[in-house]
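Retro notes
What went well: the complex prediction finally ran end to end.
Inputs used:
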Amino acid sequence: MAVSPAQRRYNWRVVILAIVYAAVLLPVCWLFARHLVHGPLAYLLGALPALPVSGFFVAIGLYLAQERDEYLRMLLVRQSLIATGVAMTAATFWGFLEGFDLLPHVVGYAWPIVWFAGLGFGAGVNAAIERRAA
Amino acid sequence: MNNRLRDLRNARGWSQQHLGDQLEVSRQSVNAIETGRYDPSLPLAFRIAELFGLTIEDVFVSPSKEK
């Protein structure tokens, strides 16, 4: 399948962000596991892994702004809406069950991971719709 | 929305990829429009009609006239 220039740029951004995420997360975890950072520096380093993760959302926004093919844009919008529905629904259910002490606490950064999983589910829905119509 | 895009394209012996290249959209988009899975925006509908030297109404069937 041909890849549009905007898709190519998006793919590159995602690959670079994934590399940056891995490069940042491992040393930060190492430092915190050994209690080597304190004070303001700890906050700075602690927030560092959030930057590339936030960057994934920026990359998606840039793709939607730069993609000239309106149908491809619509596919990603549908995918993102499905991902948002999955993540928000999961967070809501988990939040209530956790609030009633029925489930353990889940860290906040788990929900973007669920959102990305939802993005994968959305891609599956798109593919199923395409296949059914073919 | 029903349309005559596939017939018009076939009449010229064009592939979906060739039509997509001329419209500056993907082959996927052409396929989605031809099969009625996606209704193009007004600017794209105009580009399609103008490419075939037709009006929008000659290419796309108004939903109100489908039944």
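What we learned: Residues 5-133 of chain A form one domain.
What to try next: split runs per interface for comparison.
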